[in-house]
DNA sequence: ACAAAAGTGTTTTCCTTACACCCATGA
DNA sequence: TCATGGGTGTAAGGAAAACACTTTTGT
């Protein structure tokens, strides 16, 4: 029998980011895609990813591509899931058992207005509305689905919405975000209002803003200090 | 500049399992540990893990060690988190930047009575109560903490308790499990009772069991069919 | 004046919480 | 008969759901 170590798979580890944003004007959830240049799936859209370098942590790699693709002020980032079956990357020829490609995916949220895409003239890069995502390279469709699931879950019990919304927003904006992610029937608007305001971490800036017809709305701001005080108590945004 | 591929880290990927169980007799949460034999940390306790082999999926590797260490009838298994910083394994010498060791951790639940440890006479293997876990190899203490956090969270909104309890159990057993994991003050017993029974997936087997003094209790059974019907509706076990 | 959106209030219902209390057994 | 744990019931308070209604703007 060959020495045990020869049975072990050799891995390259990639980091793939599911980066969400929301276009408040069009009321659409967006995901950042890049056009692949390299060998497999060249010319196809994919999640922005990279292979992990020597001495680099997974999270550092995630931040690196992020910084390569967009300029942003604020960001939310957390690990999503690790996809590692054999055959997820054609570079590992199915019979030769060479190098395995494993993908550690990260989930990120940025503000649309603050996120400036870095177009280098070579690589395609674009925000895609979730309903119009094209075919993706590798198993990136699965990763995207998993990320979207996470977004829906997190909206219900954590304040991630405020990492996607502009710094100041109306309660209508907030409600629209929730409806466009969670569907129309998640809650009545007025109940949603009172519930969120009662939580006590939204401060009215006093500034009013008018969008077309209708009564002008107050701009609110997420108060992270107030939130920090309640953060271990269970909380429902539904 | 050297070709780009030489900058990439070469990985070995390990799978480490946080396997929980509960000893109903002593009312203690247990975690499965094994004594390391190999090179780094030899003679120290660690989470049961293995390196992923050629052509083997991550989950398959997780099941493989599981099957190597215990015989079980029922098991719950899900991916936990991926720990991948450099310097988490001394085998990667800090300056030479050789092979990186990455750990994809899995979270598992088994029934104590049904789980038969496979002692091969060579390797130490034992259930440790959570309060008496010794020092662990690598960053396994961090992984264990993360797994315990997951256990606490899942108890609140998913029926994982029934993967740890015996097939039939009293409501007192169920309550004790919750208190030993979540602490004494998570809920009043009688309210816990009524809440759980109202959910509608616990069936009374009619069998009574007497444990020392006190009125005999009914044995209940988790009814996965009834649960499946309600599974997408939000549910609170608190 | 009217539509449209913001914002307030009310009612009904249901769930949570905190108990008090009865029941069946072992010692 | 008493301690012990199993099991039922209830009253107070609060949150959730549904909906009516008022306010302030643009057109």
From TrEMBL, chains A, B:
GO molecular function terms listed in the Swiss-Prot or TrEMBL record: DNA binding; hydrolase activity
tRNA-binding among keywords: no
SUPFAM superfamilies: Nudix, Winged helix' DNA-binding domain
Name this polypeptide is given: NUDIX hydrolase
Coiled coil: none
Pfam families, A to Z: NUDIX, WHD_AraR
Segments forming domain Nudix hydrolase: 10-151
Keywords (A to Z) from UniProt: Hydrolase
Alphabetized PANTHER family for the sequence: ADP-RIBOSE PYROPHOSPHATASE, SLR1690 PROTEIN
Keyword Lipoprotein: no
